[in-house]
Write the structure tokens for this entry.
Amino acid sequence: RPLLEVTDLVKHYAVRGGVLRRQIGTVHAVDGVSFALGTGETLGLVGESGCGKSTVARTVLRLVEPTSGAIKLDGEDIAPLSKTALRPYRRSMQIVFQDPFASLNPRMTAGDIVGEPLTVHGLATGAKKQERVAELFQQVGLRPDQMKNFPHQFSGGQRQRICIARALSLGPRLIVCDEPVSALDVSIQAQVINLLIDLQRKQNFSYLFIAHDLAVVAHISHRVAVMYLGRIVEIADKRELFANP
Ligand code: ADP
Ligand code: ADP
């Protein structure tokens, strides 16, 4: 059974306008998307800007409410669940965004940022939490003594490592990466991608990986789904991608 099975996912956004902010239209951002993702597998999601990649990713995590369709995690459809019923599933699904600076609280130390999910879910406090955070820092190639530093004291690549450590903190089954290296210098991109690949080998979670750079996507993905106007128009195996450049 796949870890994630998405069936006929639809997301329509209401567009409001005019003086009274009435609904003046609908954007069919995602229009019947289906795919499956195995444990330890990476599915790349590519397509031109506006084709619906982020909406698919955010809907799968229920950060955006689906209009219709099923989102099965380990066979359980999480699409109709209430926020409360969803809580246990939230722990197993994490997201890493494009801009690591924007998603880090500038007033929190890196250690507190990485440890925050542990606190929120009541999993560790005090010395036990510090120990776990130090371990996460090492896993992503940061030094434990950097835990006391603030986001602005890190480089762009290091900030993305902080985001990755936070995403790993609860032992996720699925990590959604929404353009995780697009904001980084080209020289740093490969380091972060290789870290992501290495972490998956050791911890066996799955990635749904969005990027516009096909070279990046093809390197990390086992299969690549191509989106066009809200639909998946092709799912190609990695071998096929390299055979047909
Ligand atoms: P991509 O990630 O491929 O660039 P998105 O999922 O961000 O695509 O957007 C798909 C479509 O949905 C675009 O036309 C976009 O403008 C629209 N869209 C995204 N978010 C919203 C929103 N909150 N309200 C209205 N339209 C939106
Ligand atoms: P990206 O495609 O990289 O996700 P966007 O600039 O398309 O970035 O979207 C940034 C944010 O704005 C997202 O949260 C998205 O949902 C929202 N958004 C995008 N398009 C629209 C839109 N037409 N109306 C309202 N919100 C939108």
Q: What stands out?
A: Residues 13, 15, 27, 29, 47, 49-55 surround adenosine-5'-diphosphate (ligand 1) (CB under 6 Å). The chain has a mean pLDDT of 95. Strands lie at 4-17, 22-37, 42-46, 68-73, 76-77, 93-96, 174-178, 206-210, 223-228, 231-237.
